[in-house]
Amino acid sequence: xxxxxxxxxxxxxxxxxxxxxxxxxxxxxxxxxxxxxxxxxxxxxxxxxxxxxxxxxxxxxxxxxxxxxxxxxxxxxxxxxxxxxxxxxxxxxxxxxxxxxxxxxxxxxxxxxxxxxxxxxxxxxxxxxxxxxxxxxxxxxxxxxxxxxxxxxxxxxxxxxxxxxxxxxxxxxxxxxxxxxxxxxxxxxxxxxxxxxxxxxxxxxxxxxxxxxxxxxxxxxxxxxxxxxxxxxxxxxxxxxxxxxxxxxxxxxxxxxxxxxxxxxxxxxxxxxxxxxxxxxxxxxxxxxxxxxxxxxxxxxxxxxxxxxxxxxxxxxxxxxxxxxxxxxxxxxxxxxxxxxxxxxxxxxxxxxxxxxxxxxxxxxxxxxxxxxxxxxxxxxxxxxxxxxxxxxxxxxxxxxxxxxxxxxxxxxxxxxxxxxxxxxxxxxxxxxxxxxxxxxxxxxxxxxxxxxxxxxxxxxxxxxxxxxxxxxxxxxxxxxxxxxxxxxxxxxxxxxxxxxxxxxxxxxxxxxxxxxxxxxxxxxxxxxxxxxxxxxxxxxxx
Length: 543
Hints:
By secondary structure, this protein is an alpha+beta fold. The chain has two domains: 1-144 and 191-291 and 392-399 and 468-530, FAD/NAD(P)-binding domain (3-Layer(bba) Sandwich); 150-184 and 295-383 and 410-462, Cholesterol Oxidase, domain 2, CATH 3.30.410. It is built from 13 helices and 26 strands. The chain has helices spanning 16-23, 43-46, 52-55, 101-109, 117-127, 154-165, 197-203, 254-264, 270-276, 315-328, 413-430, 452-462, 512-526, and strands at residues 4-10, 31-34, 64-65, 78-79, 128-130, 144-148, 181-184, 186-187, 189-190, 193-194, 211-214, 218-225, 228-236, 239-251, 267-268, 282-283, 289-291, 295-303, 340-344, 355-360, 376-383, 390-393, 404-406, 439-444, 464-465, 495-497. The strands form seven sheets. Strands 1, 2, 11, 12, 13, 14 and 26 form a seven-stranded mixed β-sheet that branches. Strands 7, 18, 19, 20, 21, 24 and 25 form a seven-stranded antiparallel β-sheet that branches. Strands 5-6-8 form a three-stranded mixed β-sheet. Helix 11 packs across helix 12. The N and C termini lie far apart (59 Å). Its cofactor is FAD.
């Protein structure tokens, strides 16, 4: 039996590094942070422009694939999940998006006390150091560095102009009063390097002798006694060990791995566990149910002038980029390429944006790391509040077997219709005067795809994940809820889940910043602290 700890945190990602670091601020407690993957001190992790490599590298990535998706012609979807210190915050696109304030008021309206926008805004502010300074909406001295992109490429300017041509407002801060409109993106980059949660909450902070960080530690299960989590079984390079937990085990594995580990530990739907050969500890039918994600698809165009980022990413250009970044931490090596974006409503019935457009000034699936890049530009459309739900499950008691999951994209017909509307909105935007100088031929869907039926067929062939899985261990009080409003697992003492899986509903934007906020807030509860005072700031809604 290995030594005991007051708190054992499983998973070092967008939530886990935050939770572990905040708990270790109480110096009379001992905290163990377990990460299955390796250290994050690697060029591909630290250089923002190299974001494509860890996405397609199983050294830093669980490299999961979904089960065949029924509404996507049976295609399987590659789902990148961080398996490295910092978790998915070490391999993501670094876009800093809080989602829409209404999302959190909606959480509260669903019966989750403490999660209204006024109650969570102080934790967003606590988490960040915004490069434009603190104000009523933004933080100025938190662990996460957030910088505003430079957006100097002329294609970025065309994107902003054309969006305004359609009637969208140029919003100065989409993480402040108004989300709807075109914007210059904000990213979690500081001093030219990726500012993951491990960077912000662990590496950039003074050492904490009461915090033990263990990489290469694959958690096999959470052991219980009298329905209390009492120890964690772990596979390490030295063999299998078990850590006693004196106070709480906090599971921060993410929306795929957290329900998997709960099920492996006997917590889930009794019938599911019986089929997998796992003994029942607590019947919680909602474990693994309700999985959601932002379904996404790329709309691509060639450019008539050679101004895209591809011209700087030749073999010689990459050498210059690398040298400039290695020695000075500047230049293209310090960008994530997603430097402008937009949130819009595709129909008047929506009170807040229902689609997001992320923009890249080049063609090619650059996230695969080795695909030829070409002159052009692309809009990535994402559906913000899909109704389609999937699930996560295990089909054996083997803790080393990959979990099974399916997103069921477009299972709800309206999700598909909203994506059709989004494609039309992109085409209408690219037809505006703002794009006249650079607009070339449409590459995807392509000029042959015109009717709604043709767009629907194209979406079924190409749509996939925006890497935002959530809601598979939802908080709430109904029969399908897995945790309460503080992440405590129903029916099991000393066990919490804190990550995107406990979101009661998917939010309108990228998930990294919301999960960090969520972890900051629940960390105060674990420590016995009173919540930060609510901060009731107004926000924009179309109706």
